[in-house]
Fold each of these.
Amino acid sequence: MKLFNLKSVLLATASMAIAVPAFAQTEVIWWDFLAGGDGVRMKALIDRFNQEHPDITITGTTSEWGVPFYTKVRTSAAVGQGPDVMTYHLSRVPLALSEGVLTPITDEDLETAGLSKDDFFDRAIEAASDDDGTLYAVPFDIHSIVLYYNKSYLEGTDYLDENGELTGLDGLENFEAALQVAQENGSQTPLSYQTGGEGGVWRVFFTLLAQQGGTLIEDGEVLPGDNLDKAVRAIEIMKSWTDNGYQPQQAEYEASVALFTSGQSAFHLNGVWEVPTMIDMENAGTLGFEWGAVQVPALLDHAATWADSHAFAIPIQGDQTMPEEKRDAVMTVIGWMSKNAISWAEAGHIPAYRPVAESEQFLEMEPNATYSSLADSAAFDPRSTIAGVASPVYEAALNLIAPAIHGFLEPQQAAEQMQSELQSLLD
Amino acid sequence: MITNRRKHIAIAMTLIAPFVFIFGLVFLYPTIRVIELSFTDAPLIGSGEWIGLDNYKKLLSDNLFYTSLKNNGYFVLLTVVPTTVIALVIALAVNRLSGRMQALMLAAFFLPYILPVSVVTQIWAWMLDFQFGILQPAIAFFVGERVPVFRHPVWVMPTVATVTIWWTNGFNVLLFIAGLRNIPTELYEAASLDGANRWQLFWKVTWPLLWPVTALVLTLQLILQLKLFDQVYLLSGGGPFNSSYVLLMMVYREAFQLNNGGYASAVALVLFVIIMVVSVLQFQLLRIGGRK
């Protein structure tokens, strides 16, 4: 009896082992760094994809944004332990190319996904390609920082028009006057952004630099010519916001968001990815004030806003190549995500896939519509192997600009030190 | 007799073979590879071209190297002697207790040591948080204002040193307790009979007999603190403007962020040599000092 039992167990196991391939599902390992309000939207998208595709399962993991994510990607991909598909910042593509962690995305790949290069904004395709025009990532969105505002501090002032929309903030003087008004109306730190971290400091600094027509890197030179003075000016402006008590000191990312959502800050400079946070809180009735979001006003010479793009990329698999079947599944995932990017737009982003970005549904979407024009004034990170998320440039923002805006280092010194440190990495 | 001797050697060889094998595999081979790598321009993974001494030349003209070296030295000054003195004082105090009370106090001081570094840094990052930290009112009381300790060029190293001492001190206490228990009580009795007071008992009996342990603690601490990385990486990231940047941070950044495996190996090797020379030198000096 015992023997018989064992036999049947063995038989059952054997038949199961045979049966498995018949119901084979291709598993796609997915890594992303989307932990903010947009991460929730992305998880919903992944769930929907899994439901609609019985033959493909996405297994997603979210790692910490920035250095932790990209360090992990590089080391794991090099030994073949990386994901099958991952989110990647287009600002980092030059760095990725120098590291050799991405596989080229061929026209056949795009065909499998049901996409073509013409479906995307030219700027995004350019940023996702190497100098020879080989594509290494499929652009997914364009995102920038925007100015969030709390209407309760501005009611009855000239800064809200008859529709209750923000107005009259162009020019640094007007902007700072508005901060002053908000402060007098009880907002302790009227302008919150991540002043104690690399991301927030870099984005605001680069916006102010770009609004003066400045560039960080040109022809292999860091802050050439009068760009150094423009960088100093940008740092000085940020420092004056600290000195006047407009912005919080050493605010970590979460704290900077909390200062706005808890109603303490009248304005908030942050990425569009926090739009869903505001929407969710408003719907749940926990926000406690009316909010809006607009494109960052032209504080200096002309309108410009720091911007970047999320994209999908397929990393190398160590010495192996990905089996064709798996690669097709990955491209199916990427294609589906692009075509369903309208749900991603709800996370505040502007889709990079034109059929969605130009659809009526998107053009009517709020608050995206109020800042979707920023595609024209977007200032992308310099295309360089030392720039992009988790790059030496971001590191310099934390290591040099952040101390300068808190008064530990002269703005001039900070800019010069940034110039020499980054230049030595390029030479 | 000869066969016996042979057998003897054979047995000895078999007994040390596992150690030699593992030592060769996980220490000797990687060390040789690091030396080899430091003469190439290899990326993090894969091999590179032989470039001779270029990495070392680059290192000698790298400002960050000197900044890091200076910070490493500063950190050693801030930790090694203070932690030894504190551990000795605690050990002397705990040693005067007896039974359960002694075990309890010992456990209390040893507890931080068993925490992983990430937990330790989380605890202190929250306690010292600029906006919400429970210790900020205390700092404000003494200094007059809140201080973002891990973002302040003057405060950052001493604070990291304090956290490190809090974390690792328990082990040193344990070593000192063991050393104190090894001192025969008759010596104290005899000295007391001869009229020695507490002060003399410490300086004439405890201190000289405890010296080998003290020398050991100092040397272990020196090696440990030169290898500083985790706390700085997790608490300050080397900032602000490199005022807490140390050599191992440089190795990490070059290897994992900038993909320069060769250069990172050169930095690592220099650190290895520094630790070796300094610790051997220190241990010899302490031994000579102890014999006097």
Amino acid sequence: MTRRFTWFNATSLTFGFVFLYLPILLLMIYSFNESKLVTVWAGFSTKWYGELARNEAMLSAAWVTLRVAFMTATLATILGTMAAWVLVRYGRFRGRTLFSGMIYAPLVMPEVITGLSLLLLFIAMSIERGLYTVVIAHTTFAMCYVAVVVSSRLVSFDTSLEEAALDLGCTPADAFFSVTLPIIAPSVIAGWLLAFTLSLDDLVIASFTTGPGATTLPIKIYSAVRLGVSPEINALSTILITLVAVGVIVASVLEKRWWSRRSG
Amino acid sequence: MNFRRALIIGLPYFWLLVFFLAPFLIVLKISLSDTAIAQPPYTPILDLSAGWQGIKDFVGGLDLESFTWLLQDSLYINAFLSSLKIAFISTFLTFLVGFPIAYGMARAPQGIRPLLVMAIILPFWTSFLIRVYAWIGILRTEGLLNQFLLWTGLISEPLQVMNTNIAVYIGIVYSYLPFMVLPIYSTLEKMDDSLLEAAIDLGCSRLKAFWLITLPLAAPGVIAGCFLVFIPAMGEFVIPDLLGGSSTLMMGKTLWIEFFSNRDWPVASAVAIILLLTLVVPIVLFQRQLERQQEASR
């Protein structure tokens, strides 16, 4: 066997994962610190979580963020799945190169550029900025992530199932909703979740495209962080990280069940 | 049938044209305009109601003033060069850190590989801002790293890491590590082991076999990973702003300051255009790479 797991592999994995997880772990531990000084341990306390629950501004920002993320994820999943379909199924058509370019470019485009350019567009079109402009901005980059996730599943999709449904008298729409969609559903759900968390996390694009009354959580966190580390931010971060981690793990377990049920 | 096809292509196409491509044209236009103390703070504004004269005034009002301004002030040139340097060095560092991890993952027993992939992806799902924030508590002068090093007796004075370029490198490597590890892992995982066996049978040492076979075969993954790190790092704002000091200049930060603090929209747009022009080549190359991979997996 040439594919051996050596001590070198083991050490690099250990160091790698310690590097990835230790900072997050420390951040979480210090959210339970009694002291206001974040890096001096003064005993266990959950008082910062209490403070957080009384912080009206943070709570309303969290509500704005959740609404934006929900709308973004839903819109981005619809548009992104359509885009994936176009990329995988429609072969060549006029303007395909431009289309795939516009799908892949936002994945790596620096956020400051996307943010600035969208803001200038909204101003040029004299659209009032607020919650919905953030949704539009987030949908634009999130749909590209959805397209990539869904198209990687569509590529390996066995089209004969769909053809069978069509032969048996399904309309194309029927065939899509009763045959194709159930099969690609895990990747569509994964795309939705990805779009949701991307929107939840975004600071830069939201800062550019938001308006009065639509302050999102990352904008709030950022302005607090600029003033220095505070245990309240640690507490908030701990809650967010736990929620996302639990969500991702549950989703992946469900996906595994889904596959084993289908193949079993 | 054709109507449906047109709708499925048309809807996402239209969305991206309006909200992704068109905005760049506006940025270009504003970068060629003059700063004004008005709302919006730039002239000229295209006034179509004035007919042909309006268009003539508009075109006549465009000039390269913002760009000459950028070239004359060494601050912007330094920001550009420093962005390039920071992006290059941190991409290389991410590769150095990421490759052994990807390699280790590909060698791990098959059963635990999905778990390892999950463990690499998980931090990517959690907030970028929070992960950068976590490093502030570690790197500060009175932070955990210095406390630990002072306690071990390795240093007698706290190290000044926070607000330096080193902190920015650490931040970029940390935040972008999954983007480097995953593409490399996916090429290494698919690698045909019999090639290595053959090389060793033919008298290669393990190290030489790694150098001659594993590394070249991993190249597509390494290239994809480097693009995924380099391009966004070039325009990074959050990391240099929170971890770097006032001496850390980067294009993303410059753009942000011009826009939000100086309210100079034409200069901010010009910075965006220059950043975009710098990144066009890597972005196109990255796209080619992605399409080639998609063709190959078909």
Amino acid sequence: MIEFFKQPWPWYIAGPLIGLTVPALLILGNKSFGISSSLRHICASCFPANIPFFKYDWKKEVWNLVFVFGIFLGGAVAINFLANPNPIEINPKLANELAGYGINNYDHLVPTDVINWASLFTFRGVMLMVVGGFLVGFGTRYAGGCTSGHAIMGLSNLQWPSLIATISFMVGGFMMANLILPHILSL
Amino acid sequence: MEPNTNTDFEVRSLDAICVNESHLEHQWYHNIKYLVIGVLFGVVFVKSEVVSWFRIQEMFRLQSFHMYGIIGSAVIVGMISVWLIKKFNIKTIYGETIEFHPKKFNKGQIYGGLLFGLGWAITGACPGPLFAQIGTGATVIIVTLISAIAGTWVYGLWRDKLPH
């Protein structure tokens, strides 16, 4: 039984489970599914700096911080009790491309060859972690949501601005992965 | 940006004249249910490899259906759920009417969306997976998370000057 759960879960199991988060949060407490707003609540609670955008009663949004703390714990549970013993399988074409950048380790979900503490002090590492993270935080708030708030919650509620946001996410991602990232990884 | 354009969807603190929140006051332990949902969600994230940098690269190179299947089926399940909640006027466990917050269009969804897309393909993670990745022991992702918090903070600082 446990062996069954240790395999990577197929999309048709995981996708519906992720989708069920939408009604679960609504029914349990009238909460709209969204994750990137947690970053804002962290700003509001720790460094509001008199910025109007961070002056609100963040304590009312504590549920969101508890939720993302749960995601962190869930990651730890999955890796400690349900870890996949085999290396990650990826499309051979991608493996071939990544080998050209020196990425050969498939033991972790993060490419530890390029994303690690030592590489933080290289230009490539700064691009992958610091600049990438900044774009995620800045872009999601500018867009008013991320994959969860717009692509899943927004589309579930048939909000066309969320469709525009989702299309923009994908356009940005395609541009980066195909046109820019290869140059960053080649550094 | 026109001063009256509200681009704030998460909290009703900004630009809201009348905030008539009828929400019940809950003790802290009511938040435990969100912790449980978060843990389950985090497990699904890791086991389905949504938090895998490699899966995101495959998605943006059209080399695998996996991520499209996950997002697509999640949206379909979400849509059916929202439709059922509206149709049968399903209440919360506390008996409150479930509220939906319409999203208004503004140009931030395009500009911000593109910027987030760029970051998503670099880090291989949207905000949720960042937390899960740290949970899996990738401690260096704490740096990415701090940087994302900094990005959110800088957006807040520049918000009035950015086109919306």
